Amino acid sequence: MHPALSIVFFTTSSGAGFALLVLLGLGAPLDLLPPSQGFGFAALAIAILLAAAGLASSAFHLGRPERAWRAFSQWRSSWLSREGVFSILTFLPAAVFGIGWVFFGVTGGLVGLCGILSAALAATTIYCTGMIYASLKPIHQWHNSWVLPNYFALGLMSGFLVLDFLVRLWAARPWGVTILTFIVVLTGWWTKERYWRFIDTTSAQSTVASATLLGSRGKVRMLEPPHTEENYLLREMGFRIARKHRVRLRRVARLAGFALPALLTLLALVLGGALGVVAAGLAVSSAAIGLVAERWLFFAEAKHTVTLYYGAEVA
Amino acid sequence: MTSLPESRPGQKKLGLVVDLDICVGCHACATACKEWNASGHMGPLPDFNPYGNDAWGVWFNRIHSFEEGEGAGARTIHFPKSCLHCEEPACVTVCPTGASYKRAEDGIVLVNESICIGCKLCSWACPYGAREFDVDEGVMKKCTLCIDRIYNENLAPEDRQPACVMVCPVNARHFGDLGDPQSDVSEMVAQRRGGDLMPELGYKPVNKYLPPRSSRMVPGQTATADAPAPNDPVSPSDRLLRWVDRLLSR
Predict the structure, then answer these.
(1) Least buried of A78, A213, B76, B79, by fewest C-beta within 10 Å?
(2) How would DSSP label each residue in chain B?
């Protein structure tokens, strides 16, 4: 599948934003986070900015962005529509939660309830994003049980990394947050490795034989494509990545996305203070680079069944 | 509404039957499709850079060519592919705006261009590559089963068929109601054991493909085909003509 930059950015950025909203919506009412209004402002602003920037970026992918509002109508059948609906719904209680916390310093009672509600809605939004991909049967690398855990784990991981950085600006040694961050980074790494192993060792049920009803006389192979030049189908669905680049990008994702953030988080735990803040900040930037590489690969490595009509033997 | 219409017993399912045994790969169906539909219901079908390098554009019908088997037993199969108007079209249910829909009355899958946002998700959800994006208009386009021909009262009744079916010079394409087991197309599918493309995905395509016949003359057999088979009744006049033919061929 063609890795459109707008979608790569959208899923990584809004994944981090909504996951951070989950953590803030649960953490503040349960008194697990610094109650400071300044922290509330900074953290909520970043969460909402990341989520909204992602959503805005996804609109660039549309052929008719001015009609984007129509996408809220088909929530009965479409995961994309559900994602849109839940992302907007999330902002309503999040606004009450934010106003209560930032302007009045309240994180309990009704404000806290709105926080928990926005956490639940944000988690549902991430679920819907994952399902957009996991529900597409023609793409084996997406239609499998590792995709949803990946979206959740990687979203939470980026949310935790940002949270750890921010908390350090207000509390010298947030042991709990940092240790959880470390565990979540390792969990994210583990799910990604399992996903990669899955797509490396399995392939789609569909083959060129099942796609054409042929094969009674032996192996089926393409003789001639229908057209000499590329068409929309090949540009959008027939994207192919060289093995060399795949290996290299996986290395970038492993190193920048998981190994470095895990190490830097541990370092921040040990160092504390200003150096801890720097380490946590570096962990966030490193993860951002790694996750963009990871998400780019998520598209580039996905093979659509339409390629079976264009010379692929399996998808 | 992108939820699918409730399926009723005896429902009309208009679609195509493609005979892979006799398609010669002439691309006439693709050309006729483009010609009719460029100004039809889903038109225009733009072409970009049509006379230069890297020419591309929107087509609803593509003719692929495959080989199966090895050596003398191998054969070439031409494989036309257009929208299969599935009974379980995920391209419809994934649509966030309701632009993609399946008609309850005849099962035709269409796009309402005026509310399509061009998110392309439907083209990802189609396993067969039936939908092509029009970058000019920013909306998705697809085969309409020539809805503007098959119900067109300005055309003579015999012309109320999809353009690809009308033009096929070898009669490899047939149009009809596959929901009616008594229809010509349904009987043809039953006789020739027609099947679904990628049935494992569960999209339940309405269009059916008739596989190539197994008893096909292969080059090795044509040499012996000249000699009459033991129980082949050949009249004396035929024998005389053959003898003359052989004599003159020397």
Answers:
(1) B76
(2) --SPPPP-TT---EEEEEETTT-----HHHHHHHHHHTTSTT----EESTTSTT-EE--S-EEEEEEESSGGG-EEEEEEE-----SS-HHHHT-SSS-EEE-TTT--EEE-TTT-----HHHHH-TT--EEEETTTTEEEE---SHHHHT-TTS-GGG-S-HHHHH-TT--EEEEETT-TTSHHHHHHHHHT-B-SSGGG----SSEEEPPPSS---HHHHHHHTSPPTT----HHHHHHHHHHHHHH-
